[in-house]
Amino acid sequence: MEKTELVRIGNVDLAYRVRGKGFPVLLIMGLTADMDWWPPSFVKGLSSSYRVVMFDNRGSGRSHAGGLGPFSIEEFAKDTAGLMRNLGMKRAHVIGLSMGGMIAQQLTLDCPDMVDHLVLSSTSCGVLRSRPPRLDVYLNAINPLGGRTERARRILAMLFSDRFRKANSDVIADLERRYFIAPTNDYNAVRQLIAALRFDCCHRLSEVQSPTLVIRGDSDDIFPGRDADLIAGRIPCSKLVVMKDAGHVVMNQYPEKCLDIILDFLQQAPEAE
């Protein structure tokens, strides 16, 4: 496994890894998750053609929180831009999953020259705008009752369908194992959740000029179809792909399929840094 490095960005130390060579691809993970949640086969496939950079968001995994104040998606995006600059990435393809997709949208709006092609998976441009929030789902993700093992299983039950979990016990066991490598503490999880619920950039999506691929699962209980439809409908140069029999973390459920779709999309890019 690639060495995990720490770099100071503003008031926070961010943990990151780099794999492969070529034009950079930046991976932004979601709520409470860390870079260990990216499917190994997905990262390996990307790194065969690109320089893949993945990191833990502020307050997740091995990254520090940078104080006790509230988090915001804008702050996460600022951290991300700072990491890119520190690593000499003038421009990159950006892939964001769930809350990571929110960060990717904000990064694209704040620093449009830094984002070449944009991939948004299982995400929203504004949870409160697109639909009434499923507070039961979000609160279940940060509920500390039952200990870490029970919490991990509750989270995985939200992310995958019963059918998938029963048929792919090895995948679920591996994700449960990775959950315990560097778990996010409860306070930081709540701060991330509040940041995600407060985020709203729907009214600005027409400003996005980066070619954008929007991916969603047809069985996503956290961000149902209307979230992806809203994003794809408002970004001028966008394409929507719906994965059948897929839940929220579609990339973990179908890493090879997602890899093929994303590589095909990225290979249309000029890749001039």
Structure in words:
- With 273 residues, the chain is an alpha/beta fold.
- The chain has one domain (5-266): Alpha/Beta hydrolase fold, catalytic domain (Rossmann fold, 3-Layer(aba) Sandwich).
- The protein is 42% helix and 18% strand.
- The protein contains twelve helices and eight strands.
- It has an eight-stranded mixed sheet, sandwiched between helices.
- The chain is globular and about 50 Å long.
- The two termini are 27 Å apart.
Briefly summarize what is shown.
The protein is of the alpha/beta class. 42% of the residues lie in helices and 18% in strands.
**CATH C-level class:** Alpha Beta
Q: Give the number of domains.
A: 1
Alpha carbon gyration radius:
17 Å
Structural class: alpha/beta
- How would the global form be characterised? globular
Give, in spatial order, the strands making up the sheet with the most strands: 1-2-4-3-5-6-7-8
Q: Can you give the helix content as a percent range?
A: 40-55%
User: What is the third-level CATH name, the topology?
Assistant: Rossmann fold
Provide the succession of SSEs: EEEHEHEHEHHHHHHEHEHH
Largest sheet: 8 strands, mixed
Tell how many strands the DSSP assignment holds.
Answer: 8
Termini separation comes to: 27 Å
Task: Specify the CATH architecture.
Answer: 3-Layer(aba) Sandwich
Which superfamily, in CATH terms, is the homologous superfamily? Answer: Alpha/Beta hydrolase fold, catalytic domain
